[in-house]
Amino acid sequence: SGVGRWCCRCFPCCGSCSQDGAGGGVEHCDSAFLEPGYDVCPEDLDDLHRAAWWGTVPRVELILMLRDPGLDKRDKKKRTALHLACANGHPEVVKLLLHRHCQLHVLDGEKRTALIKAVQCQEEECANILLEHGADPNIPDVYGNTTLHYAIYNEDKSMTKILLSYGANIESENKGGLTPFLLAVLEQKQQMVEFLVKKKANLNAVDNFKSEIRQQNPHFLEVPRNTSQNSDLGKTSDS
């Protein structure tokens, strides 16, 4: 297959976020992928945001008709009703907000679109609705991650297929220089590695990435490929 066998020791540690090159010289923040859902205190939400979070469609309709609070009004953490409905998996609320012409690409406090939150939280129906209405899957968040990075991290093959069908960039790089394929290798997502190989992801990205690490850290050592410590990462089913 040309993929070969890789050991995650060939890459810098992914357990921390480094701005100054510590741990291999390339910024990669694992915290970007942890706790994908929102931490919500209902008392901090206004009526529209609270209704969107709980998924109470009739109440959302009533608030929109009688109070006109602003569809794209953001809460203290810059989240819109659309963000909250997507993160908590309420497709009927998402449909209602889109029918009322809410904005698709408002960014929350971590510069994430509602589509990123839907993908992060594995709310496929909400993500599908957004994509059908023209949501852009390639807008990066504060870490440079796109929807495809999060789908790969979640090992969500179905969502990955959908995103690619709507034009998600398979070679997009986050701020750590990781494409979705490199992320799959680094995080040992074997099935996603194989899937992206079949989707023609750039395999040379692995060597390019390791070359960048060596330039920034001359003492960086690669584990020999033929040692027993090597994982099966990157070894496709037909290799």
TrEMBL record:
Chain positions covered by the region annotation Disordered: 217-239
Keyword Repeat found: yes
Biased composition (Polar residues): 225-239
One matching Pfam family: Ank
Positions of ANK repeats: 77-109, 110-142, 143-175, 176-208
InterPro entries: Ankyrin_repeat_domain, Ankyrin_rpt, Ankyrin_rpt-contain_sf
Keyword Nucleus (UniProt): no
Highest taxon listed in the record's lineage: Eukaryota
Keyword terms of this UniProt record: ANK repeat, Repeat
Xref: PANTHER family: ANKYRIN REPEAT DOMAIN 36-RELATED, POTE ANKYRIN DOMAIN FAMILY MEMBER D
Family statement drawn from the similarity comment of this UniProt entry: Belongs to the POTE family.
The protein's name in its UniProt record: Uncharacterized protein
